[in-house]
Structure formats: C-alpha cells, structure tokens
C-alpha cells in the first residue's frame, strides 16, 4: 500500500512539473509563431529546448529524486525527451502540412500526445530508484 501511495505522489509531482514545462513550451511556441519570428518547426524546437530544462530540473530534484548523477540522468532524460519531441514534431508537421488547423493549435495538439509515454520511460529508466527493475541497470 505504501509503494502505491508513493507512486501516486510521484505521478502527481510528474503531472505538476509536466504542466509547468508544457505551459512554458506552449507559451513560447505560440508566441513565436504568432509573432512570425520562426516557422512552426523551429518555434517548436526552441520551445522544446527551454521546456526541457524546466522539465529535467523539476523531475530530477522533485518528482523522482533519483540517486543517479545529474549528468547521467540528464543524458537519459534527454533521450526520452528527444524521442517525445520527434513524435511531437512529426504530428505537428503532419497537421500543418495537411492544413488541418492553424499552426498554433497544431502545436497544442502535438504537444499533448507525449506525457504518458514520458512518465513511464522516466520513472523506470530516466530516473530509476535502486531495485526498480532490470531496465534501470542498463544504459
């Protein structure tokens, strides 16, 4: 029961950090696109990189409190985040090229697809606790 309660708390912290990072991401990508400072893909990349810092620091120090060295956890989380970003970008480009909706709204839709996959990968590989499972032992 205690482990379940901890996981619920961890997930709640993940959601809080994720919301903060997502709001950073969306506010930057929306603003850059609306101001016509960059095309949607480049605006999304810029927003991703800034939101990555917010997300990593929040998850490392608060959500997961891993014992991994910060640079090791950062490298793992960066791989997770880049995979999520690639998926996010694919969806964004697909929606924009098909002219299914305005680029600002396409950025919102594409950004909302990633969090569930990111939680599982982060919890068990990016920021593992000792004894979590076999995935946390390998690089």
Written overview of the protein:
With 139 residues, this protein is mostly helical. It has one domain. 76% of the residues lie in helices and 0% in strands. The chain is built from five helices and no strands. It is elongated.
Largest sheet: none
Number of helices: 5
Helix and strand content put the structural class at mainly alpha
Helix content: over 70%
Q: What is the CA–CA distance across the termini?
A: 30 Å
Shape: elongated
| SSE string | HHHHH
Measured by DSSP, the beta-strand proportion falls in: under 5%
- What is the oligomer described by this structure? single chain
What is the structure about, briefly put?
The chain contains five helices and no strands.
How is the topology of this model organized?
Blueprint: H1 2-34, H2 40-63, H3 70-97, H4 103-111, H5 115-126
Annotation keywords:
139 residues; mainly alpha; elongated; disordered C terminus
């Amino acid at each position: 029961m205690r482990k379940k309660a901890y996981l619920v708390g961890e997930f709640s912290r993940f959601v809080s950090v994720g919301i903060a990072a997502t709001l950073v991401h969306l506010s930057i990508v929306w603003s850059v696109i609306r101001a016509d400072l960059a095309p949607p893909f480049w605006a999304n990349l810029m927003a991703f990189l800034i939101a990555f810092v917010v997300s990593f620091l929040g998850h490392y120090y608060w959500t997961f409190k891993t014992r991994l060295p910060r640079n090791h956890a950062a490298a793992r989380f960066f791989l997770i985040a880049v995979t999520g970003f690639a998926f996010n970008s694919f969806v964004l480009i697909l929606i924009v090229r098909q002219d299914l909706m305005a680029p600002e709204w396409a950025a919102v839709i594409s950004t909302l697809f990633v969090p569930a996959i990111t939680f599982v990968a982060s919890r068990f590989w990016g920021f593992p606790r000792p004894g979590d499972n076999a995935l946390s032992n390998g690089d």
